[in-house]
Specification:
4 helices
Length: 73
């Protein structure tokens, strides 16, 4: 059974939002070297916030997907 089949609509949206935050955080590190040199504190705060949000949203999506499967294997 695929992970996509086990997730309800809300969990899939939360998972997609978490993955978008992760992608944005990684892209920030890759493509904004000039901004990082000029605004170090803002860059570090923004990237840390995006990574933290991505971890929290992915954890929340997986936890809520597990609650919906009670009684099923």
């Amino acid at each position: 059974m695929c992970l996509h089949d086990r997730l309800d609509r809300r969990s899939r949206r939360i998972l997609a939002l978490g993955n978008l935050c992760l992608f944005t955080g990684l892209s920030l590190w890759r493509y904004s070297a000039d901004f990082a040199r000029q605004h170090d504190a803002i860059f570090n705060g923004l990237s840390f916030g995006l990574f933290s949000l991505a971890i929290a949203l992915n954890f929340w999506a997986m936890r809520s997907a597990g609650r919906g499967n009670k009684g099923r294997t």
